Amino acid sequence: MAEPAPGVELRICPPRGRIDLRGDPADPAFPTAVAGVLGFELPSTPNTSRSAGAATVLWLGPDAWLIETERAMEAAVAERLAQALPDLHCSVAAVGDGSVAFSVSGPRAADVLAKGMTLDLDPARFRAGHCARSLLARIPVLLHRPGDDFIYEVTAARSYSEYALDWLHDAALEYGDAAGSS
Amino acid sequence: MLLIPCPWCGARDESEFTCGGEAHIRRPADPDALDDAHWADYLFMRANPKGSHRERWCHSHGCGRWFNVERDTVTHGIVSVYRMGEPPPGGDGS
Amino acid sequence: MTGQPYRLAEGGAIDRSRPVGFSFDGRRYTGFAGDTLASALLANGVTLVGRSFKYHRPRGILSAGTEEPNALVQLGTGARGIANAKATRVELHEGLVASSVNCWPGPRCDLGALNDLAHRLIPAGFYYKTFMWPHRGWHFYERLIRRMAGLGRAPEGADPDRYERMNAHCDVLVVGAGPAGLAAARAAARGGSRVILADERGLPGGTLPDAADTGRLGETTAELEDLDNVRILVRTTVTGYFDHNFLIALERVTDHLGPHAPAHLPRQRLWRIRAGRVVLATGALERPLVFANNDRPGIMLASAARAYVNRFAVLPGRRAVVVTDNDSAYGAALDLHRNGVEIAAVVDLRRNGEGGKPAEARAAGLQILAGHAVVDSRGRRRVRTAHVARLDDDGSLTGPVRTLSCDLIAMSGGWNPAVHLFSQAGGRLRYDEALRAFLPEGAPQAVRCAGAINGAADTASCIAQGRAAGAGEPDDRAAGRVEAASRAPWAVPARNRAGEGRRFVDFQNDVTSADIALAAREGYQSVEHLKRYTTLGMGTDQGKTGNVAGLAILAQTLGLAIPEVGTTTFRPPYDPVTFGAIAGRDVGRLADPVRRTPIHRWHEEAGAVFEDVGQWKRPFYYPQDGETKHGAVARECLAVRNAAGVMDASTLGKILVCGPDARALLNRIYTNAWDRLEAGRCRYGLMLGEDGMVLDDGVTACLAGNRFLTTTTTGNASRVFAWLEEWLQTEWPDLDVYLTSLTEQLATVALAGPNAREILAALTDDIDLEPDAFPFMAWREGRVAGLPARVFRVSYTGELSYEIVVPAGDAMDLWTALTGPEHAVTPFGTEAMHVLRAEKGYLMIGQETDGTVTPLDLDMQWILSRKKDFIGRRSLARPAMRDPLRKRLVGLETGDPATVLPEGAQILAEPPSGVPEAMIGHVTSSYWSPTLGRSIALALVQGGRDREPPTVHVPLDDRTVRASIRDPRFYDPDGVRMNG
User: Fold this and answer.
1) How many CA atoms are closer than 13 Å to the CA of C911, on its beta-carbon side?
2) What pTM value is reported for the model?
3) Which chains border A (3 or more CB–CB pairs < 8 Å)?
4) From CA C663, how far away is CA A47, in angstroms rounded?
5) Pairwise CB contact (< 8 Å): B63 & A118
6) Which of A46, A118, A119 sits opposite B63 (nearest CB)?
7) Are residue A83 and residue A111 in the same domain, yes or no?
8) Same domain for A80 and A111?
9) Do residue A23 and residue A72 come from a single domain?
């Protein structure tokens, strides 16, 4: 039996800006002020993301979101948010250095992830714009499927990133791992 | 391995959760008003029923929220889940 | 076909164009693709394949499947070897190497067979009874017993193969791909469900006796294979059924390929399946009959004989006696007859051998002995004769014993529905008198049973039940059941009073009907006790063939009905699972997640020795050319005390506490008060559990009015974060506070030593480092080495010290700047840090504390606010917390300054006198202090520093060390240096 055609491709995503945003969605002033800065509404459906322009917002919890931006924009977006929310009880923290994202793509991408994740990754269920915090091989991760194609983004804490990549490469061996890590 | 319906995220594997033990135990407002025996009750004594049991769980590796689970300790069937501060669906949560 | 004397010229589902060479017990044989090891051995005329566990009796092949108790083999060699593989399940591949287990030097001449001659000396419970005394003797006996028993050998060396784990979800999981399972899968799939169909065999189609029948199911299989919503897992045994329809299955991905397996594929894959619904179509397993010497090679289940002749085109013998208490064995008799096996007789235990099946057999010219039983057999390495006698109405033997020569006895003692998984699911079983079997009843989980597991005996009923179960429609569970008309005895009586000839119930564990009766007489009357005393139903087959007869014999002995005796608990796994599959890829460098700091690569290149702190890799010390640990740590300590050192403290937990009620939260969590902490200042805090025990400590800085940065110890970072969240969400939802973990976002470098200020001054131009402008326990924001940073003037070493906090992405630049040659800064690791803090008498969480230590025990009353409530405060007022005999923190000084006590050493008030002594404490931290040129130790000792006299004794392996209690602050007790 010959080696299979590459079924998975792993890449480290370029560094990106991340802002941890906490606030009360029930207080109308909060989502309004945030939408004013981002230009679009925060996703309110659990485990979904919303994206426009250079920013993507992922739902992390009922009062928690992660805003992803270009690396260079992180400080500026955080600053604008802080200014737009001066008197509200909320929390804005730049956390872009704290994690690393990997892209796992290809026809067997979901199989590689399923080796270490208990989420139901059926493409009809974990659809475009879905995200979830869960565990990958005992590491806390954030999984995001930005679009319809079979590209998944796995965001892991910086300290775990080397292990996570190592684990993903090892998991992909069976399916033929197309690209290197760098 | 239980399948726990998080009130926000839906059904997820038990490995994403932390069990916090019996639910609806309030911290006494004035601990000094309790004698040692009552304080020990609050600290240590927990129900261990056979059958329906209310526990609190945290979706610690998901949305991070604490919530309540009513679970049958015999069958491990989950009867209901409800958010913090909400009354149990069956009533009598105090 | 030469070399395969028992192979038929045609028929079967084997591929005669693909011969396969293999070896068994050192001899080379040839089989065909499609063979199992068992069928290939039978084709070659090998019937003796091993020895039994206890008596080392010669044993052959009993079955054709998973239930096999006898034909266990050692498979492969070296690190790839597998012990106790079932020859009936091993698919043949070129170059397969197998050998018998449990016999030495070999199965034909086994020294352990002496046990068989001495069997009267080895009754049930023999090991328990004999080796109880003297009580130290067991260590001696155990080695001998282990050599005699123990079946196969564990492989040696690390397993070179890969094992995978896979999580899967489906709407319907169908277990078993026989007629019922295939029908269920098709019905479910046609309804649009996501289906997983798992079967332990290499091909779907089940174990229908006729290969042609199996072929008819091929259409269904082909349809399923074409559907996107169906996943068919072959060579996959569902072994465990857990809560909420979570099941474990083991897929043997390349076991059947042996050394020819493609390298990229795992050897096995453990499936973790979450199913909406489960359909169990697991079939039924045939029971042996219990008669004297029913265990000889050449005696096998009738269904197995039929499978070998039909599916593998192998004659399991040339002259057979078929013995049965039900109709199913007639099919075997006819199939054997058709293929040229001479049928000496069909012995039917039932009085009335009438009905369709017997009539068919009679029409084919077979002799039927109704109301007869096989009562004994002869033949050492292969059965030679069967002894047959008439059974009376009351089940006793009557009349003369006839001897029939034969080389095969095909037996059927009825069928056990394979209810194992159903029972694991929490399902209730019901004993059905008419079927003489345990059947599935109600279950607390979403599970349905279909086919032979329900007692259905014909294919049409199996398919109908499968279709209904797959579609989720109602069905007739009783359809297709055939009543066991007989009241045949569970154990055929012995042929004479002496009761000679053991009647085996559990072949693998050599449990006989006499053992069961003996155990019952000795009081082991509960089925669970019986199992443990006799080992009935233990081992690699878990009593799949023998259990029900064993229970029935127990019931009979006790005069109870079978339902009153009940069954033992069915536990996972249904079939053994390799440790490799359980471990998966959690081995080697992936065994456990590893966390690395942003400066890790520098440490590595500097040759650091790492210490595991939780999952973190932290530099332990940095040995320089040939330095020992002792030398390196001493050098690092002295550098900090005399010049300056840097340490990577990025692993400390960091939590942003933010909101109008942030101070209120800190006040409730920490023992001290936070109302007056201003922006730009920091404070040390101690947090307790509600039980009053120390949980964690760390420094919290006020960043701005209601924004705080709290640090935790490395090991407790996630625990403390969760602790705060729990209180906020469950108890104090009224507090407006948000917590954000910044542990990963921020890196911390500690710069410590008398030269620290000077070095930092060279790297910053916008922070005023003058002591008045930047005092101890203050923090400032500015640029360090050109990087935006927060600098905290805190100290864990007792020296003038700054902790510089930068975003993790800048950490390497900061570290590189600090360690530049112009600064003469010494990197130091965690061990030096431990020594330095111990010299100061600072506690370390997890070292001085262990969940039983209060702040009072640590003489830290000063940090307990009297003006507010905090978590744990009330518990400190409990009388036991004020007991003067509680262990309290002290410093220890050994009489001999060169002696470094081992950490964890116990402490006595008096030198040991040889009788048991009451321990009064233990050493919590102990080091060589290079600063003081002597050993130092911290300890928890009853009475603490008030203890009189202050001398204690520490017994070690070879001597007792005297030590005296002192103030734990060994160095600079007034803190002049760090405040300077």
Assistant:
1) 4
2) 0.94
3) B, C
4) 32
5) no
6) A46
7) no
8) no
9) yes
Q: How much is the average pLDDT of B10-16?
A: 97
* C469-503 per-position pLDDT tens digit: 999 998 888 888 887 666 788 899 887 655 568 99
What phi, psi does C87 have (nearest 5°)? -60, -25
Domain harbouring A163, CATH code: 3.30.1360.120
Nearest CA distance, C875 vs chain B (angstrom): 8
Residue A70: predicted pLDDT: 96
Instruction: Using alpha carbons, select from C40, C409, C447 the residue that is nearest to residue C238.
Output: C447
Does the beta-carbon distance from B76 to C690 stay under 8 Å? no
Complete domains list, chain C, with CATH? 1-158 (3.10.20.440), 161-287+414-484+580-589 (3.50.50.60), 288-413 (3.50.50.60), 600-650+749-775+792-813+820-837 (3.30.1360.120), 653-741 (3.30.70.1400), 883-980 (2.40.30.110)
Flag residues of chain C having pLDDT under 50: 1
Does residue A42 belong to any structural domain of this protein?
Answer: yes
Burial grade of A163 (CB within 10 A; 0-12, 13-18, 19 or more): buried
Counts for chain C of helices (H) and strands (E), in that order = 26, 47
pLDDT of residue B4: 98
Whether residue A24 sits in one domain with residue A80: yes
Mark whether A92 and A102 lie in a shared domain: no
Please report whether residue A1 resides in a domain. no
Kindly report, residue by residue over A9-21, the tens digit of the pLDDT.
Answer: 999 999 999 999 9
Contact C593 A158 (CB under 8 A): no
Say if B64 is an interface residue toward chain A (CB within 8 Å).
Answer: yes
**Which tokens in the block code for residue C162?**
């890969």
In a domain, A27, yes or no: yes
Q: Each residue of A113-162: pLDDT tens digit? A: 999 999 999 999 999 999 999 999 999 999 999 998 999 999 999 999 99
A106 in the same domain as A165: yes
Mutation target among B2, B6, B13 for the A interface, most CBs of A within 10 A? B13
A50, part of any domain: yes
What is the structure's pLDDT at C525? 86
Indicate yes or no: CB of C875 within 8 angstroms of CB of B32: no
CB contact under 8 A, B8 and A132: no
What is the Cα–Cα distance from B18 to B16, expressed in whole angstroms?
7
Q: How far apart are CA C263 and CA C47, in angstroms?
A: 35
Residues of A whose CB is below 8 A from B62: 132-134
For chain B, domains (ranges, CATH) are 3-25+38-83 (3.30.2270.10)
Q: Which domain holds residue A136?
A: 9-13+98-177
Closest in B9, B12, B61 to A140, CB measured = B61
Number of Cβ atoms within 10 Å of the Cβ of A39: 10
CB contact under 8 A, C809 and A115: no
Provide the pLDDT for residue B92.
58
Check C262 against A1: CB less than 8 A apart.
yes
Contact A162 C597 (CB under 8 A): no
Q: What is the pLDDT of residue B93?
A: 46
Task: Please give the residue of chain B at the shortest CA–CA distance from C246.
Answer: B1
User: What's the pLDDT at C680?
Assistant: 97
Phi (first) and psi of residue C18, to 5 degrees: -125, 85
- Chain A neighbors of C585, CB-CB under 8 A: 115, 167, 170-171
> Which residue from C749, C781, C748, C777 is spatially nearest to C766, judged by alpha carbons?
C781
Predicted pLDDT of residue C1:
43
Minimal CA separation from B25 to chain A, in Å = 24
CB C422 within 8 A of CB C453: yes
Are residues A88 and A20 part of one domain?
yes
CATH number at residue A37: 3.30.70.1520
How many Å lie between the alpha carbon of B35 and the closest alpha carbon of chain C? Answer: 9
% helix / strand / coil in chain C, to the nearest 5?
A: 25, 30, 45
Count: domains in chain A: 2
**In the complex, which subunits touch C with 3 or more CB pairs below 8 angstroms?**
A, B
Same domain, A25 and A47: yes
Residue C750 contacts residue C647 (beta carbons within 8 Å): yes
